[in-house]
Structures are given as C-alpha cells and as structure tokens.
Amino acid sequence: MKAIHGALVHTGSGFEPDLTVLVEGDRIAGIVRPAEVPADAEVDDWGDAAIIPGTVNAHGHAFQNLFKGFSDDLPFDRWRDDVLYPFSERLDADAIYAGALFAFAEALLAGTTTTVDFFYLHDAGNDNAERVIQAARDIGIRLVLARALYDPDAPTKAPARYREPAREAAERCRSLATSYADDPLIHVQPAPHSLHAASPETIRIALELAEELDSPCHLHLAEASYERAQVEERYGTTPVRLLAREGLLSERLVAIHTVWADDEELDLLAESGAGVVHCPGANAFLGDGMARVPEMLARGIRVALGPDGGCANNRQSVFDEMRSATLIAKARLTDGSAMDAATAFRMGTEGGADLLGLPVGRLEVGAHADLVGLDIHDLSLQPPGLLERHIVHSMQQTAIANVMVGGRVVVRDRHLTTVRNGEIRKRVADVTAGWTRVR
Ligand SMILES: [Zn+2]
C-alpha cells in the first residue's frame, strides 16, 4: 500500500488539511489522518501539496497535436480541407504513435489523468489504434479510445483511411474492446464520427454496440453552422431533432460540441439524458460559435470538458478549458455570474468521469488512484485560502508538481517519469521534418 500525504486534500466538499490518500494497487483505499496510516505503508510525502482529482479530457484527437501551428488562423473549411484531411494522409503507424505520445505527455504535465482519443485513422483495421493504446500504456495515462465509425460514402473530402462499412467498423471496435476488457488503464468505446460522416443507421449500429459493451457512444454533434445547414438540406430537420426522430437520443450518447442547438433541441437532449462535451477553446479557435452551457446546465444536461485536437486549440489542458468555459459564458451572456469556478471544476473532473462511465474524477474510496499534487506555494495560487477559485481562474501550469495515474507516479516535480522529453521532441521533429505551414 502507498500513502500519499498532502497538506490539503480535495474531499469533494472542499479542501481539508493534513490528510493521506491510501492507494492499494490502482485504487484509492482510504483518505485518512497521518496517524491512521498503516505502519507498513510506503509513504510518499508530497509535502506542501494540494491533492486534487486528476482532470478528465472528454474529447480529443491525439494525432492532431502533430499539426499544431501548421493550420492556425484559418476559416473552418480551409482548416479541415487544406490541413486536417491532407495532413492526415502523411501519418504512418510510427507517426501516430509519436503524435499520441506527444499529446499524452502534454496532457499529463497539465494534470490530465484520463483522456479520450476519438480516433479515426483506421486504414480498415485496428493496428493504428493499437499504437495509440501502446503510447498511453508507455507514458501511463488512462485512455478512452473512442473508436470511430466513418461511412464509406460520407459526402466529405476525408481520406479513404477514415472510412469503413459500419458493420466492419463496429466489429473492429468490438474486437478491440474485448482485447482490453481486463486492462484497467484502457477503455474502448464506439464513436460514430458525426452527422456529416455517419448515417442514422451507422449511429444506430454504434449505439447497439454501446449497449452491448455497456459503454457510452461518442458523436460530434452540431459543431459548426455548416453542419446544421447540411443536415437540414439532407434530412429536412436540424441535428438534434434528427437524432430524436430516429430514436438515437439516449443517455449513452456523448454529444461533442453541440454548438448549434436551439432551446427546443436542448430540451430534447435533457429529456433523453444525453451528455455534452464542451470544447470552448477549440470552438473559439475554429470560429465555430459557442455551446450554450449555462442553458444546458439549467436543464440538467450533464456537461464535461474537452480540449479537442491539438491543431484546434492548441493546448492539452483541461484546466485551461475550465477557465475558457467560465470566461466565454460570462462574455456571451454579459453576466459575470454566468458560471462559477466550482461548476467549471466539476465539469472538468467528475463531470467527465460520469459521461465516460469511469470511477475517476473524485477522491473517494474505490475510485482509481488518479491524483494531481499542486504546489500550494506557487504564486498563481495566492492569496492563500481560495484554492478552489484559483485553480480555475488563475492557476498556471507551474503549480502542477506531481501526477499519479492508477497508483503510478507519472509526473514527479514537473517532469515525466516514464518517457523523456527529448525522446518525444525527436519523434515529433522527425515526423514533421519538411512540413510547411498553410497560410
Ligand atoms: Zn473532435
């Protein structure tokens, strides 16, 4: 048993002083006073640390971290058609591994302990997805591999390597999920790409698989206005209404973005129990518009946070998304009380855990031991006594000192313990050598 001691520990209702988190295997076995620590426990004193649950990235595309900077400051259609699609063709399996290692390293250093990789570079198989999983295991991050289903006849300029007949994609997703069913670090969940790349029938197949696997089902939904227009033209109704009409709204659905949804559509989402992943950084970066999160929360819709792909944000920090979520809600509603720090913190921790169906995001007995130790002396966390607000509104990454995932310390004193920075840098430089930025 390990005993992680912190000056402050986040217990859900707030911070309590001088506690020790007991870790047995990959789970939290207790949160106790130092005097109650078993004599044979291996003590790891994190000193003047505030121990909080690791954050949960509920939506991202790790390979896109390799495109960071090449595609900035473009309108959405040029970003997608001139960079995302053609650059996706450049990545072989080693490059996909490098991109995953790169994104996961940045995520861990930013205090993210669970990350979703919504993955679609399949080449009609699972070998590439296996490389992403390998990267997660090597670096030590908890991974939800949201395995995409992308229709062969989707009316986009996307490369052939994204596309598979839905039944084959579902079978590959099932097989990958089965292979990792006993791996506590790896979770495979189905992910029909979007309404522009997956037919209602494909989404139905994915939802049936989610039912069988007892897992969530991820779907990009109403990200940009063009998608709403396209759905209206093709199906004669709006994105959320289409899902409702087809019987595809369910509490298993994890709807990513959901920017272009009117009040009645939010009501439909709320009634169905579907959740939403809010990606404020990416929505702003790409000029998509902005999801109406306070309006969602007021209806009881469950909301999590995602930084999204590395070329659409360009950061891998859920703390950053917490801050963006509050700032943008306040700016959009011209109301400084539109979203408080505690709400944003919940979305980035237990909110993500709930949508993904994982026992993380809270420090409690039985949860995975996914912890972040903040240096309470960091200037970005001063004045003292206001940590819950500072974490969202003023914290800098200099405060993130230690990170544990599943009982394994993967960041110690602001450095990865599992993979050297230099190795990641070299892999990234090798993959991107000779590339030039667009625009
Ligand atoms: Zn996405």
Rounded average pLDDT: 97
Secondary structural class: alpha/beta
Which overall shape is indicated by the principal axes computed on the Cα atoms?
A: globular
Distance between the termini: 54 Å
Number of distinct beta strands: 17
Q: Kindly estimate the percentage of residues that lie in beta strands according to DSSP.
A: 15-25%
**Domain module tally:** 2
CATH names the topology of the largest domain as: TIM Barrel
Taking pLDDT < 50 over at least 5 consecutive residues as the criterion, the unreliable ranges are none
- Helix amount: 25-40%
The number of helical runs is 14
Task: State the CATH architecture of the largest domain.
Answer: Alpha-Beta Barrel
Q: Say which CATH homologous superfamily of the largest domain is assigned.
A: Metal-dependent hydrolases
Please outline the helices and strands:
Layout: E1 2-10, E2 15-24, E3 27-32, E4 42-45, E5 49-53, E6 55-57, H1 76-88, H2 93-109, E7 112-119, H3 127-139, E8 142-149, H4 166-179, E9 186-192, H5 200-213, E10 217-221, H6 225-235, H7 239-245, E11 253-257, H8 263-272, E12 275-278, H9 280-285, H10 293-298, E13 302-305, H11 318-333, H12 341-356, E14 371-375, H13 387-393, E15 400-405, E16 408-412, E17 415-416, H14 421-432
Parallel strand pairs: 1-4, 1-5, 6-7, 7-8, 8-9, 10-11, 11-12, 12-13
Antiparallel strand pairs: 1-2, 2-3, 5-14, 14-15, 15-16, 16-17
Helix pairs in contact: 2-3, 2-14, 4-5, 11-12, 12-13
Bound molecules: zinc ion.
